[in-house]
Amino acid sequence: MIETKESFIKYVNDLLDNFRDYKSGLDFSLKYSQLFNDKILSLTKDCPDNLTIAAIGGLCRMELTPYSDIDIVFISNSVDEHKEYISKTIQLLWDTGISVSHSVRSFKQIFEFAENDLPSFTQLLEMRYISGSQPVYLKFIDNIKIILNSEFKKKLLDEFITDIEKRHSLFGKSPLLIEPNIKNSRGGMRDLHSAAWIYYLLKNELPVLDKYDTAVNHFLLNAVNSNSISTAEARSILDAYDYMIKIRSGLHIINSNARDRLDFQAQINLARYLNTDSTNIDEASQELMQKYFDAALHISSLLDYFVKEAIETIHPCETFNEYQLDEDFLLCGKFIKCNKKGNLNLVQILKAFNYQHQYLAVLSNELEKKIKDSLEYFDGTEISDPEVKRLFKKFFQSPDDFSDTLMLMHRLGVLGFLIPEFASLKFFYQPNAYHIYTTDEHTLYAIKNVFKLELDNSTLGEIFRKYENKELLILGILFHDIAKPISHSGHEIIGSQISENVMQRFDYEEEKIEIVSFLVENHLLMEQTAFRRNLNDANILNSFRSKFRNLQELDFLYLLTYADLSAVNPSLWTSWKSSLLNELYTKTKEMIVNAISAEELLSPEIEKFDFSKYPIDRGDYFEHIRQINDVNYLYTFSEEEIAAHISEIKKGQVLSILHNNLDDFTQVTIITRDEKGLLSKICGSISISDCNIHDASIFTRKDGIIIDTFKITDFITHKPLTEEHFEILAENITRVLLQNYDLNKAFEEHREKWKRLDNQKKTSIDIEIKFENHPNYSIIDIHAADRIGLLYLITKKLTELGLIIYFAKIGTKLNGAFDSFYVLDSEFRKIPETRYDELKKEISDALSNFEKAFSSR
After folding, report:
1. Max Cα-Cα span within the chain
2. Of 418, 460, 607, 806, which has the fewest Cβ atoms less than 10 A away?
């Protein structure tokens, strides 16, 4: 027997040290739980006769993981008389090294919790006796059973389902999240617990658990014996849960805490910890997640099964009229049921899904099983049936949202059978912070999101409602990432070819195939143009406009771009990005509808300036426009802003700094005389003021006066600057530009602070540098890890390389920066291609050194 705190803790640590020797996560968890259970039992043998000590939570289930809560409950009909013993016992347990959480329950609280406190009542559904009075414990259990055998059970089931939905909304509704919460996301461990609780409620039972086996074994054995699930299904679910327990235990050990989020860094660390012999940690990490996705789907499906059983109990089929839909299917309440004996053919399966969509119904558990069983006997020739092709097309011709039906078809394997190329997306993911779903899940959520535009009042909503037949748009979304498992680079081109092949198999007309192929091949074009290019550049607009034969193609590409971005990561769809895409769409639409060029669209209407609103002289205005000599200026700034620029220039000040707060940014404009490296100095000044730069517009007058405007946010809050913060920024800009302040020294000092503050673990990003030809400039696209001060480093390096920056578009995707620069060399010429390799190396080396210095701790 373990006598001291030190020896007990040593025994615990020895067990943790040997974790990797356990092939089964549940075997380790059982051993770990027994250690704590036996210690609690040995310390509470003096429990009074009318008091019971029971385990709840992970200790009750004998499924503890390191650092998870150890929960016990004291049960008595006379709680007050045991306060001293309870307090003494809790102190004793803590003194022994058991960080226990406890609650005290009386008999009358059973009914109070059932009525008003579902989480507390749920704990009572799984309890296991440890010590004290067994008669008290058994009487307490009998009182709980009274509730389970009453009509109140339906209310509890309904609340359970609502509680599950709330948890999924909070921690993730998809079992295919790339960075899941192992416990609480859909498909996580809590879903299995919820399935068990629903099962016991449905059966009017409470589990009789002991310390010699885990609760999951008890639950699955009972579910098999009651014919709720098959032995094979139970085996798959047990393996899935065993894997979840294993990676949760490993995660707790490597983190030395109870954190359950399996983020990218944790995946790498866990893969390294569990695979000590692996030479390729990236592959080991991806294999770990592939197994996680498979396990999460099994657990999620189990919960879905019992939720349906609960719904049928709450709303029995007998209380509804039955509607015979055809000779094989009937509608009973919310459920589509099948009265056909034996297996279904593919036509019948597609009819079932069409009925589900048409009646907003749910496929019964028996029908889902029949569909999965039937698929096992198909050989692939079924797809050539003309009726199969007709029914497949019918889904995509529906004006109503059928994304849930597509998701279920995918889960059951039907979508992958119809389109084997889509089946290859299953569990495929890119380990970066840009995506939050696997590629198959992202695609289906993109379809769901585009249908939500039906009720949206934006321009996107108006465009979506304009088209009654959205078949080609939805097919474009379905296929847009289908080639990613083949190659991420160029997946849009390969994907367009795949879409053509699939649509030809389903006998689509050539014209429809061309439109979908166009959408897939160009699905990145609109965001790349809007986020990385100057939208007041006639050459850019003309090039973009030339891609479209008609307005429908533009409309569909705009909708696809929205669907894609909104389903990647909720934080990516910002009002700023929305406005950029809308600006590009609006200008291109005007060019298409009015059959005009970008030059005609952007032709400056200088005379339209409203002089009655602003106290500036006409002569000063026209002279200012002549000095700027860039039509982009008139489209970048409002009349009010132009008037402010003229007013500041007329004052003759050496330096003017203007600012105003927008919804998402603070816009700062600097007006001063140009000099070599000026842009770099301004960017550095902004960086040492703890600000992030999101956009830069650069204009230089013929007389050497520059008007540079930046959209910035606070580095810490990611919000517009406060007035106090702006004053600090203005002071730093003034010191750097006018007082010979040592910017390099200040930058290095601030970088040390940023390294301490920016402690988020970020996935690595490969540096990419590309050149694009333009009639008037050389465009340099740079992709690198987003760090505060990055723009200062880049502009400084470009200046050192003798390049003049005329325009900059700053874009970010979470921890990645996508910056584009319009440049000329010191002779005001475009960069010759012979210099590309040299410049790439110089810029890449500078960025690599910057990232190393930033990342070093």
Report:
1. 100
2. 607
